[in-house]
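Quick start: what a row looks like.
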Amino acid sequence: MSEITDRAPLSGFQVRPLLGEAGRRRLEGFLIPLIALLAGLALFGAFIAANGKSPVEFYQLVYRGGFGTWFSLQNTMTRAAPLLLTALCVALPAQLGLVVIGGEGAFVLGGLAAAVVGPLFGFAPGSLAILTMALAGICAGGVWIGLVGAMRHYRGINETISSLLMAYIAIALMNHFVEGPLKDPASLNKPSTVPLPDPMRVGEIPGMDVHWGFAVGILACLAAGFVLSRTTFGFAARIAGGNARAAAVQGLPVGRLILAFTAAAGAAAGLAGMIQVAAVQGSANASLAAGYGYTGILIAFLARQNPVAIIPMALLIGGIDAAGGFIQRRMDLPDATVLVLQGILFVAILVSETLSGRLLPSRNAKAGGAS
């Protein structure tokens, strides 16, 4: 009798799991992109080997060309600067379950708007002119992707298709204005807008050969992460992204959230375009449409739409891009090789999404399977 009494309390005892549900999701969110990244690199290594080159040498050159020296690291940060903001253009609407892939359009229109507005403020101090150009880029990009959100909310038009088509329209508009009404007569071989005066150019971070756009991108990612994780606005977005109909029943303004997040996404890409013009190119021309918006899609998916995780992923892809010319010279590979690597990584990320919820199944899922 005493043995039964002594053992009775143990019958209701349950061993707590090492990780709670939130910890499981965080660990899975880290492991899935890591597995996808390693799988993509392995597949690309096989591709390089099939072409008679050494995968080990390739990855060594990627490290040396993108991260091995202070000079190469600065080059990586410069290339990552626009990618931080174009990745946000994908990650922000994704909080609501929207797949917006037209950041390239907002990027080129933001750059074009900055190139047009800048010379109009030649009378103003340089800092005021730069701020005005930034607002112009933000407004141009915000309105452009905001239209995608409006079509989704009011007419039910698929945002993936509409944003992609509007990107093509934006590039066509940019080329039309650059080669037509806004063309600088002095730009003969490569049509461009009037070059920005030196006071209107975005300078470099003191002590570094990296423009201030990189710092702006870092701050934007950190601010977005704070808003999404620490504010009621971000909480409402996550609820609406999980189940829009349930969120609407609970009284959440799902429509306004869609409009706000798509406009903010476009604003980020438009600001990236402005920085590219004011810090790198000095004028708007066809070089704006260099694929920064499309590369941002890859980075956002690598980061699993987490604004803070965008920072290391943008540096990784920026480093790979920075090492492209170095690899081309040393291994006699075409410059498109880096694009092949990015494509394989993107496919690996898409496939890896099937592991979500399966890599580390929850206790409820295990109990359901056992029953």
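That is the whole record. The chain has one domain: 81-356. Confidence is low (pLDDT under 50) at residues 1-16.
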